[in-house]
Amino acid sequence: MLVGAVFMVMSLTAWSRGSAAIPLSGEEIITQIHSLATLYKINSTLVLSTYLQHQGSPFSDINFSFPSWFENGLPTAAMGFKAWRCLCPGDRLLQARQAFSAISEFFQLVRDDQMSLNPTATELHRLLEIAQRSSEALLSNLNEAMLILGYQPQSTQPEPLSWASTDESTFKRKVRGYVLCREYRDWLMRVPKDMEILRAARNRRESAGPDRKDCCRS
Ligand SMILES: *[C@@H]1O[C@H](CO)[C@@H](O)[C@H](O)[C@H]1NC(C)=O
Ligand SMILES: *[C@@H]1O[C@H](CO)[C@@H](O)[C@H](O)[C@H]1NC(C)=O
Predict the structure, then answer these.
(1) pTM higher than 0.85
(2) 3-state secondary structure of 120
(3) Which protein residue has the closest C-alpha to ligand 2 atom 7?
């Protein structure tokens, strides 16, 4: 109940602030993305487990895992710790934005897949729909952050899904949904950490004065 209420308020904030006359400060947008990701993270494990339960064997088997399976066009949150730690602020935001742009697209595809594969799984459909909306809310906040923090927003168009890959076997469609739910969860774990690093880097830059260059700032 409480989580539901907080979710409503935060979504509303994200939405109405996006079109408000007074833009958020850099600090505020970073905090907002951090809070949204932390909030959405709570349900992401449930989305993954509910998804797996409905796909039959081997997906529904205890301890099911395909850690090395990736989906074309869906950026993975996994990367080496040193490489992640050394990302410059613009790249950090850009990677998250690209991920949630792809994730929102894939949720639409996977929701359609599940409508035909598991038409009666209403709780799953509801969770997938909430996850898609949550991804879209994060994406719009990440887009806003790029502007507010002064990073060059590159093309907002996600890499288009190839039509050939939408016509897959049942098994491949199930795998695609699995990888999506897994990456969604992993990105929601990564983004709050990204925001903490971003905040610390900004504070350092401000105390070092305006001349200090950032490798991503043009
Ligand atoms: C979590 O999932 C429940 C449905 O099980 C939903 O009612 C709730 O709004 C979700 N919370 C968030 C923060 O998405
Ligand atoms: C699942 O994993 C747990 C802990 O890693 C292990 O104890 C258990 O035997 C595993 N179950 C099966 C069915 O493999």
Answers:
(1) no
(2) coil
(3) 63
What's the rounded Cα separation, in Å, for the pair 87 and 93? 10
CA of 60 to the centre of ligand 2 (A): 14
What is the pLDDT confidence band of residue 112, given thresholds at 50, 70 and 90? Answer: very high
Q: Return d(Cα 144, Cα 31) in angstroms, integer.
A: 13
Amino acid at position 134, single letter: S
φ/ψ bin of 139: left (φ > 0), alpha (ψ from -120 to 50), beta (otherwise):
alpha
**63-87, pLDDT tens digit by residue?**
888 777 788 889 999 988 888 888 8
| Full DSSP string of 52-100 | HHTT-TTTTSTT---TT---TT---S---HHHHHT--HHHHHHHHHHHH
Q: Of all protein residues, whose CA lies closest to atom 11 belonging to ligand 1?
A: 4
**Ligand 2-lining residues (CB < 6 angstroms):** 62-63
Query: What tokens were used for 11?
Result: 């979504």
43 alpha carbon – ligand 1 mean position (Å): 6
Cβ atoms 195, 35 nearer than 8 A:
no
* Ligand 2 atom 6 nearest Cα: 63
